[in-house]
Amino acid sequence: MKILVLNSGSSSVKYQLFDTEKNKALGEGIIAKIGEEGSYLEHMANDKKTKIDVDAPNHSKGLQVIIDTLTDKDLGVISDISEISAVGHRVVHGGDEFFESTMITDEVIKKIEECVPLAPLHNPPNLQGIKEAKKLFPGIPQVAVFDTAFHHTMPEKAYMYALPYEYCKKYKIRKYGFHGTSHKYVAIRAAEILGKSIDELRIITCHLGNGASITAIDKGKSIDTSMGFTPLEGLIMGTRCGDLDPAIVFFLYRRAGLNIDEIDNLMNKKSGLLGISGISNDVRTIISNAKSGNKRCQLALDMFAYRIKKYVGAYTAVLGSLDVLVFTAGIGENSPEIRSMICNNMKVLGIELDEEKNRGAKGVESIISNEKSKVKVLVIPTDEEKMIVSDVVKIVREVGK
Ligand code: ADP
């Protein structure tokens, strides 16, 4: 089967055409700056990377460019779109409606629309991608894969906030969690790498990218995760503050004279590693400045690692014990320095790194704990597209039965 995975953002669409028989991506890329000046396509196929300026004033045109590219006689990898068996769409928020990936019907589209108030920045472009794809791929099954779905197994005591119960229910205020596809993928991979059944493992997965979250997984099921009602809660991120005393919001409003939108922007776009370092949201830049003696950069790194360490401790307690700790995404996969800071002095939890293996593990699947470590510590590059493909194939086969 050939499955097209689409990730439609507000001004970009990422795509990957995956061949399940060959078990590899035939082609992938991104259309960027949709609806803006200078739209361009980056396309990778047959070990060749191409970047070209394109005309993409809207998502519909953008998707058409993707189709034209995938079927192009020079750049393409298929001769006709009828070779595509199904399309998988990444959808950020499934609210409390969607517990698993779902075949897209008009009813499903309506329900995703109802989730827009919960993800006003993300669900509208996701929906746009779905609607355009339905038009451009008539008769080809379309499946929605939700970032929130993996976390639906959290118990009520973990997902409820201690606000008046009626408010939580009326406005659907609860922890939803995000990055679910990534956490699920690396947990499944960890079990495979260790040759164990996921049903016998207690796993903590750390997705550390520009956005960052950590999940406690008991026998393959998410039982708690650090992102919450929105992706702002939890870990310190590139530009997000993560956990803080909610009263700081009122204080910034009353004392610093910021309005609600300014506070929202401050906490989502100007905080985190960028806010503390004052230089960058990129860990590479911060590490090199810290090494040259920049104290605020060192502080940003210390705070980042400390927050993760606290969550690892808390989630070990919640799980009752820990078998596997996984690092993934840009920072988790590539930064031995950060992994080392997190795992330093964690013998009490049975976590001990082999520093040489840790230093050598960059963007490849590796076991970086030492022989004595009770907990296996793994680096696993995430592959959300592969997880989406696997869900799409499952659903298409079930429907075809
Ligand atoms: P997202 O998908 O959330 O935008 P990624 O998972 O691509 O983010 O991670 C991006 C981040 O990964 C960068 O901002 C940078 O901080 C970090 N990163 C990437 N490569 C390295 C590296 N070699 N060393 C340390 N950090 C890195």
Structural descriptors:
401 residues; alpha/beta; Nucleotidyltransferase, domain 5; 2 domains; eight-stranded mixed beta sheet; six-stranded mixed beta sheet; 15 helices; 39% helix; binds adenosine-5'-diphosphate
The CATH homology group name of the largest domain: ATPase, nucleotide binding domain
Distance between the termini: 16 Å
The number of strands is: 14
Indicate the proportion of strand residues: 15-25%
> Mean pLDDT, as a whole number?
96
Strand order of the largest sheet: 5-4-3-2-1-6-8-7
Determine the oligomeric state from the structure: single chain
Q: What is the CATH C-level name of the largest domain? A: Alpha Beta
Tell me the structural class. Answer: alpha/beta
What features would you describe in this structure?
- By secondary structure, the protein is α/β, with parallel strands linked by helices.
- The radius of gyration is 22 Å and the shape is globular.
- It folds into two domains: 2-146, Nucleotidyltransferase, domain 5; 196-384, 2-Layer Sandwich (Nucleotidyltransferase, domain 5), CATH 3.30.420.40.
- It is built from 15 helices and 14 strands.
- The protein has helices at 59-70, 106-114, 123-136, 156-159, 165-170, 180-194, 247-254, 260-269, 272-277, 283-291, 295-319, 329-334, 336-343, 355-360, 384-400, and strands at 2-8, 13-19, 24-32, 40-45, 48-53, 86-91, 102-103, 142-146, 202-208, 212-218, 221-225, 324-328, 366-367, 376-379.
- Helix 1 (59-70) crosses helix 3 (123-136) and helix 11 crosses helix 13 (336-343).
- The model has no long low-confidence stretch (mean pLDDT 96).
- It has an eight-stranded mixed sheet with strand order 5-4-3-2-1-6-8-7, with helices on both faces.
- Strand 10 and strand 11 form a beta hairpin.
